[in-house]
TrEMBL record:
The lineage of its organism: Bacteria, Pseudomonadati, Bacteroidota, Chitinophagia, Chitinophagales. It comes from Puia dinghuensis. It comes from the Bacteria. Residues 8-142 form the DinB-like domain. This is DinB-like domain-containing protein. Pfam families: DinB_2. InterPro entries: DinB-like, DinB/YfiT-like. Gene3D superfamilies: dinb family like domain.
Length: 151
């Protein structure tokens, strides 16, 4: 789990600064009317962090829980379109720092416990690595960097 923890720490360190540097106008931009704005994509990452915190905790004491979330509903009902950008970046950073602490406290045995997210149950160690890939995919969208594929 240590390489994933270090990877997440690096993502937080590098990307939180980049996210803070963007203007409100950039965050409000959307590529099409039916697409999320960059602010809403960041809100989606906040929602993802919250749901993954739940996965990382619950799967340590329940056998193979299924933890899903309706991402479009979460983004719409959270009102990220009207959320102050600086607060949203801070929330994203704090939630991810919390995930680092949770992962650091996880035993090797707990890291092998499984959680289902709509498909085949996966070990928490895999969920954590996948979470980092998901973050990078969306962070590159927000920052207009080279796309990173994510299923």
């Amino acid at each position: 789990m240590q390489p994933t923890i270090e990877h997440l720490e690096k993502i937080i360190r590098i990307y939180s600064r980049r996210l803070e540097a963007l203007t409100d106008e950039i965050y409000d931009w959307r590529s099409a009317p039916e697409k999320w704005s960059k602010k809403e994509i960041l809100g989606h990452l906040v929602d993802s962090a919250q749901n993954n915190i739940r996965r990382f905790i619950v799967a340590q004491y329940e056998d193979t829980p299924t933890i899903l979330y309706a991402q479009d509903e979460w983004v719409a009902r959270s009102g990220y379109r009207h959320y102050p950008v600086r607060s949203l970046v801070m929330l994203w950073t704090l939630l991810n720092n919390h995930i680092v602490k949770i992962l650091a406290n996880m035993t090797p045995e707990a890291a092998q416990r499984k959680c289902a997210m709509g498909g085949h149950p996966q070990p928490l160690e895999w969920v954590a690595a996948d979470y980092c890939n998901h973050l990078l995919h969306h962070l590159h969208q927000i920052l207009d960097l080279e796309p990173i594929a994510y299923p």
